[in-house]
């Protein structure tokens, strides 16, 4: 049953060294505060899963926490490359990492299959694409009815998924709205799920019945962390801090600058600092 | 009335925008494709359906998004769906008429690399990868490509097949069981290219104003074929150029306007 916990405790109780973990969010609602807490607690040998491993995975890879990444787009959207991830892949710094690369369609289908309890996902994909030759987890199957050749990938079943969402009600049901990305599937595919939320409300009685709600019994822990997805955004709460994404490109370009930034902005900070980071963005939302 | 004083990049974006029709359903890539699609929407194609892979269908942003998931895209969309639905129902389901892609490396058959420069397992440069592109390239009815010409970008042989164009040319797509048309148009900062109907090799069909054949060849890594009847791309109109520049000015103000970030 879901527990409301301080973020520090929620991370400590649900993440372990060597876990496969998804901090999901498709540009919107990225669980930055949860990732920063994982960095402060110093987990090692993680398999990091995410369709779009942006700043928080650059940070975790740069801190040497990842042994493997599973992804479909390892970039800073609209800005360029992820420089700490590149350094790890190209130069093995600070440690070599294993890479399992898919397309967005491949990962979306794999999460959905995970949520559905299936061993693999089948879809029309990777035709003529080079990834099928370099990723042994991309195979093909023949449709038993039409004979059509289709791609198959193993389902994604993370040990733990972290997401950020707008609201929980007092019982622990969670509401996600706006660009809902892959978060619902990532939660339902995982063995355990931890959700950070902007706020807790009494109930969802006045909301539209078709909104995306994760029932409380699908979630292990909820932590209230206002601003917890900065520099990403929370639809209806605060806007995306595009300047921070542009600035990250410069910070991550230099190994020492990166370390200094992580020390000052992650290691020496806490989840409580996120609310202040989004103050100037609230009026733009 | 034609404008003067436009840059090659502005000509590219405007030429690309003209290729889009009002009834197109377009899967939009970030960067130059996004600018072209929105100029089309703000000029001759007000009802065009723009789809970004974050799940926004029929979006009409006032500024260009920095990422495929900016809040503006959702707020102005007809509807927003989950990412699996986007790729399963809308793209794989055959609802997209035009997939609009950019490229880091491109060959003469419209094959695109955005994955690595060098060997995949020991890359010289690790690029972001395909994202949605491998399936956009095969499930959209047609593919338009836009990129600024350089010898490093337009190469005889790409280092990695991120997304499949016409392969080795001819009927290579059909032989792989792909029944969509693939790349049918390439718009660069110097010219408009279309595939030869038989060989599928991109051929220059129109030079932008003031551009010579020699310039096109000097900034391209393969031996360029030119159509016998070579057109000149009409210069941007005042409306087109002003629309693009206003859009980019709004975009710059919006992305810099949030102030210096204190943390990420």
Automatic annotation (TrEMBL), chain A:
Coiled coil: none
Entry keyword annotation includes Transferase: yes
UniProt keyword Zinc, yes or no: no
Stored InterPro entries: CoA_trans_fam_I, NagB/RpiA_transferase-like
GO molecular function, one term: CoA-transferase activity
Keywords: Transferase
Pfam families recorded: CoA_trans (PF01144)
SUPFAM superfamilies in UniProt: NagB/RpiA/CoA transferase-like (SSF100950)
Official protein name in the record: 3-oxoadipate--succinyl-CoA transferase subunit A
Protein source organism: Rhizobium loti (Mesorhizobium loti)
From TrEMBL, chain B:
GO-annotated molecular function: CoA-transferase activity
Keywords: Transferase
SMART domains named in the record: CoA_trans
InterPro entries (alphabetical): CoA_trans_fam_I, NagB/RpiA_transferase-like
Matches recorded under Pfam families: CoA_trans
Presence of the UniProt keyword Manganese in the record: no
Protein origin, superkingdom: Bacteria
The name this protein goes by in its record: 3-oxoadipate--succinyl-CoA transferase subunit B
């Amino acid at each position: 049953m879901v527990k409301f916990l301080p973020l520090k405790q929620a991370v400590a109780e649900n993440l372990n060294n060597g876990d496969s973990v998804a901090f999901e969010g498709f540009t919107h609602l990225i669980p930055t505060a949860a990732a920063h807490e994982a960095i402060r607690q110093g987990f090692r040998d993680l398999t990091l899963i995410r369709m779009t491993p942006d700043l928080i995975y650059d940070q975790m890879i740069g801190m040497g926490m990842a042994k493997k990444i599973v992804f479909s787009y390892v970039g800073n959207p609209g800005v360029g490359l992820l420089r700490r991830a590149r350094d790890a892949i190209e130069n093995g710094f600070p440690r070599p990492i294993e890479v399992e690369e898919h397309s967005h369609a491949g990962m979306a289908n794999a999460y959905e299959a995970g949520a559905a309890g299936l061993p693999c996902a089948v879809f029309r994909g990777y035709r003529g694409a080079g990834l099928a030759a370099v990723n042994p987890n991309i195979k093909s199957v023949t449709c038993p009815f039409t004979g059509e050749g289709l791609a198959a990938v193993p389902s994604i079943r993370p040990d733990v998924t972290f997401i950020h969402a707008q609201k929980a009600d007092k019982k622990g049901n969670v509401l996600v709205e706006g660009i809902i990305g892959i978060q619902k599937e990532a939660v339902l595919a995982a063995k355990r799920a931890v959700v950070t939320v902007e706020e807790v409300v009494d109930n969802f009685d006045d909301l539209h019945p078709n909104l995306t709600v994760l029932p409380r019994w699908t979630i292990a822990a909820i932590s209230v962390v206002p601003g917890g997805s900065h520099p990403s955004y929370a639809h209806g709460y605060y806007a995306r801090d595009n300047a921070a994404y542009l600035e990250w490109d410069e910070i991550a370009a230099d190994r020492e600058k990166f370390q200094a930034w992580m020390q000052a902005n992650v290691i020496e900070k806490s989840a409580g600092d996120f609310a202040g980071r989004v103050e100037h963005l609230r009026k733009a939302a | 009335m034609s404008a003067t004083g436009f840059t090659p990049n502005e000509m590219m974006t405007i030429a690309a925008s003209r290729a889009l029709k009002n009834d197109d359903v377009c899967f939009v890539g970030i960067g130059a494709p996004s600018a072209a699609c929105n100029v089309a929407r703000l000029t001759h194609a007000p009802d065009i359906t723009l789809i970004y892979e974050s799940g926004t269908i029929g979006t009409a942003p006032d500024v260009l998004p920095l990422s495929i998931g900016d809040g503006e895209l959702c707020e102005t969309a007809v509807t927003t769906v989950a990412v699996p639905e986007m790729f399963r129902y809308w793209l794989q389901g055959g609802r997209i008429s035009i997939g609009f892609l950019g490229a880091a490396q491109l060959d003469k058959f419209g094959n695109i690399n955005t994955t690595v420069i060098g060997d995949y397992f020991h890359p010289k440069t690790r690029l972001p990868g395909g994202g949605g592109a491998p399936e956009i390239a095969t499930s959209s009815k047609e593919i338009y490509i836009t990129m600024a010409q350089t010898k490093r970008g337009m190469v005889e042989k790409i280092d990695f097949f991120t997304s499949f164009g016409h392969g080795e040319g001819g009927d290579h797509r059909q032989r792989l069981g792909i029944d969509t048309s693939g790349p049918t148009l390439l718009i660069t900062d110097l010219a408009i290219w279309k595939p030869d109907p038989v060989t599928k090799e991109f051929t220059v069909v129109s030079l932008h104003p003031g551009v010579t054949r020699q310039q096109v060849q000097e900034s391209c890594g393969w031996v360029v074929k030119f159509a016998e009847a070579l057109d000149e791309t009409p210069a941007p109109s005042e409306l087109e150029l002003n629309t693009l520049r206003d859009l980019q000015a709004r975009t710059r103000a919006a992305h810099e306007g949030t102030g210096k970030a204190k943390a990420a």
